[in-house]
Design a protein that fits this description.
50% helix; 12% strand; transmembrane; hydrolase
């Protein structure tokens, strides 16, 4: 939690001894209040999260209703098919013996993102964190409400590329958000909207 807050930082309090920040390309106009700019980025974050969550939820409901206990559907020959799988582990079927731990981790990610959203002033970071939040919420919903029980539920996976693990849209959102965060970090763009050069 402390590490996450260090990364996000506080927009109007630069870190002591750190490099002088440069304004990013999405900096506010001179007459635009920082609070208003921050509220728009928060709206983007939760908007992206909501879209990712609803897409994941609706796709899983459709898979359970139409595909579970049926033959897989070939989408692109042998390269890609849709196949309903219940996954008690983490993304891509890792660690099936630690379902409760992964549930706690997902809940913690959601709390951290929601807590740090008020310090967010960067549109790309808002999109990245929104993808992470929506994906985490999607899989957490399965952990809570699906069998075999609360906090032990198996996640519904259905996207099955050839020679790869089966996954779902929530996993995709989490991975895309993580990749975007890595790219933004390498480019020196901070969540508070400033750009630094090492």
């Amino acid at each position: 939690m402390a590490e996450a807050e260090r990364i996000i930082g506080t927009p109007d309090t630069p870190e002591a001894g750190g490099p002088e920040p440069e304004e990013s390309s999405d900096a506010a106009a001179p007459d635009e209040q920082p609070a208003s700019r921050g509220k728009r980025k928060i709206a983007v974050l939760f908007g992206v999260a909501l879209v990712a969550y609803l897409l994941d939820l609706s796709s899983k409901m459709l898979v359970v209703a139409k595909l579970e206990h049926h033959e897989p559907i070939e989408v692109v020959g042998d390269l890609l098919r849709f196949e309903a799988i219940r996954n008690a582990g983490a993304a891509f079927g890792i660690g099936e013996a630690f379902t409760v731990i992964f549930t706690v981790i997902a809940a913690s990610v959601i709390v951290v993102i929601a807590r740090l959203a008020r310090k967010l002033y960067s549109l790309p970071w808002a999109i990245a964190l929104g993808l992470l939040l929506g994906g985490a919420l999607g899989n957490l919903t399965d952990r809570i409400f699906r069998s075999p029980g609360v906090f032990k539920g198996a996640v519904v996976d259905f996207i099955a590329p050839a020679n790869f693990a089966v996954f779902n849209l929530a996993d995709s959102a989490i991975v895309c958000g993580g990749i975007l965060i890595v790219i933004l970090s390498f480019r020196g763009l901070d969540p508070d909207g400033t750009v630094h050069k090492d």
